[in-house]
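Still learning folds. Look over my entry:

…
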Amino acid sequence: MYQKEFSTTAKLASFVISSIIFSSLLVGLGGIIYLYTLSNSKEYSSEKSQFGELFEGLRPAKMAHLFHVLFLVRRVLSATWIVFTEKMLIEIRVAVFVMIQVLQLIYLAVVRPFESLKDNIIEIVNDFVYCII
């Protein structure tokens, strides 16, 4: 059986790309943890807070303030899933992607994180179309 040997350049490139992906995941997870702890603190409730823009337009409910955290979690999970499962069957990959999207749609429909009905509808339609495409 023929085996293809990789040159040291290909191994180095693979290591660099894997390191970049891993470090991006760590930074993303750090940001997610930071946003989650921020949403649980009382600092965001004051209108003069330095993080006021982060929660602007969201309802004051705690579950609504997790919108950005869940958005980032979904993006990191999707990117990780695409990168690390390239040899898996496409049907399984698509099924997991659709399940992640459906969970996001359920969150949007139940929690309705935005103050404006129009923003909630736009976000639900946007995620629904994203799931179909």
Summary: The CA atoms of residues 112 and 120 lie 6 Å apart. The two ends are 40 Å apart (CA to CA). Residues 8-132 form one domain. DSSP finds five helices and no strands in the chain.
